[in-house]
Design a protein that fits this description.
Blueprint: E1 6-18, E2 33-35, H1 48-69, E3 76-78, H2 80-91, H3 96-106, H4 114-126, E4 146-157, H5 164-174, E5 178-181, H6 186-200, E6 218-231, E7 237-238, E8 243-246, E9 252-255, E10 257-269, E11 272-278, E12 284-290, H7 296-301, H8 305-313, E13 316-325, E14 327-334, H9 336-341, H10 356-359, E15 365-377, E16 394-395, E17 404-407, E18 412-418, E19 423-430
Length: 435
């Protein structure tokens, strides 16, 4: 029977905003209730040029962030889309220099166009995608399902004041309401937030917010979750023999792998193999970037939005016997120091951050940015819960009628990419697929 693998990733992100005031004493039950504007979510009406500007900036942020995170070593996965989505919720209430600083670091488009365009992007990603129907002959078929959803939520201290205009924007542009909780009871508040995250990620991320991250001064948490489950277009199967994978440390390990001989969109760009592996629907793909053995760090140093865009533009159909390792790992990231190194400082500074559009005061500031991601990739399907010019040379591909063998047997980078909008959903690096 032909096997159709699918890959699922979970990635929620939380911003915890705190102010240095005495916490409201607990006076209610720990269960949350929802305050929501009666405004309806905007229809998908984004100008194509505005959407292209937003996703171009998102790709730039994705690789800006990669340049900082890569220094930590080891396997890595994160979602630039989820991180930017959570900060867009904060940006809706930011004012003055705080608003400008967030826009600069995340490459957000200027002005009021950001939020309706982000709304259109998320709704576009959430739209149902066509999937293959049953085989007319009645022959059992492997799972070829496709799911992609993005969700947002806000969590505010019960009896704390939030501006009506901010609640309107949460509803109109992010389809979100304000869940009221009692942060004076950290265990109960964390349980409510983590329950929502678990619901959005098929119970694969259940502990995003530890209770000890909640303090008596916490007044607001903003969350974004993205969930992806997609089957391959091509019928990958398990590779009969493990891959002899050379890790970043120079050790050779035996890694379980999947394999397929097929036509792939491929290019050789500055000695880096670029392979675009499509998911069902041919909209989203797993883009594999494979540098030579021992050259990962040198490649990473030049990995930018311009490099990535140019590489994708250079691919063409090529016959390949393609093998890559199975994956099953996660990343947990506390991103506040990382974002500060990119120039995001004001939002974290008590007494200087300006989120007055949220509560009408200058008291709120961001105290933590928590990020978790998980990927499982195999051949059968596993449920698991990101003005310059670049001159590039594209290497010659093998003759079209002669497939060549490409084994991903050394450290590499991958990108989960939406061709329709230009959005990067996830970015990852694999230095040891067995960890």
């Amino acid at each position: 029977m032909r096997a159709w693998p699918w890959t699922i990733l979970w990635l929620p992100l939380s911003l915890a905003c705190s102010l240095s005031l005495t916490a409201t004493p607990p006076t209610a039950t720990p269960d949350s209730s929802l305050i929501r504007s009666d405004r309806q979510r905007r229809p998908i009406t984004a100008d194509p040029a505005a959407l292209a500007t937003l996703t171009e900036g998102q790709r730039a942020f994705a690789f800006d962030l990669y340049q900082v995170l890569r220094a930590e070593g080891g396997n890595l996965i994160y979602s630039p889309h989820s991180i930017a989505g959570a900060f867009a919720l904060a940006q809706a209430g930011a004012r003055g220099a705080t608003e400008a600083e967030i826009a600069a670091v995340f490459h957000f488009p200027a002005g009021a166009i950001l939020h309706p365009t982000f709304s259109a992007l998320d709704q576009n990603l959430n739209a149902p995608q066509p999937t293959p129907g049953p085989d007319p002959s009645g022959t059992p078929q492997p799972d070829r399902s496709f799911q992609l959803r993005v969700a947002n939520a806000a969590w505010g201290q019960r009896d704390y004041h939030f501006e009506a205009a901010y609640l309107d924007q949460l509803a109109e542009d992010y389809g979100a309401g304000m869940h009221t909780v009692d942060f004076g009871d950290p265990e109960a508040a964390a349980r409510e937030i983590n329950r929502w995250v678990a619901d959005q990620t098929a119970d694969r991320i259940t502990d995003l917010v530890p209770p000890d991250q909640i303090t008596p001064d916490t007044r607001l948490a903003l969350t974004n979750a993205i969930y992806f489950k997609g089957g391959w277009v091509g019928a990958f199967g398990p590779r009969p023999q493990p891959l002899a994978f050379t890790t970043a440390a120079g050790e050779t390990i035996q890694a379980p792998a999947i394999s397929l001989a097929d036509d792939f969109a491929y290019a050789l760009v500055e000695d880096v193999h670029v392979v675009d592996v499509p998911y069902v629907g041919n909209r989203i793909s797993f883009v594999v970037l494979v540098p030579p053995v021992g050259a990962l760090e040198a490649f990473e140093s030049r990995l930018t939005q311009a490099w990535f865009d140019g590489a994708l533009a250079g691919v063409s159909s090529t016959k390949i016997v393609f093998s890559m390792p199975k994956l099953d790992y996660e990343s947990r990231l506390a991103l506040a120091p990382t974002l500060q190194s990119l120039g995001l400082n004001l939002p974290f500074q008590e007494g200087q951050a300006d989120f007055s559009g949220i509560d009408g005061t200058h008291d709120l500031y961001i105290s933590a940015v928590l990020h978790q991601a998980n990927i499982t990739l195999d051949e059968t399907g596993t449920e698991a819960a990101a003005a310059t010019a670049l001159l590039m040379e594209v290497g010659a591909a093998p003759p079209a009628d002669e497939p060549f063998i490409l084994m991903v047997d050394r450290p590499y980078v991958y990108v989960i990419y939406d061709h329709e909008t230009g959005a990067i959903l996830f970015v990852g690096r694999v230095t040891d697929p067995t960890r």
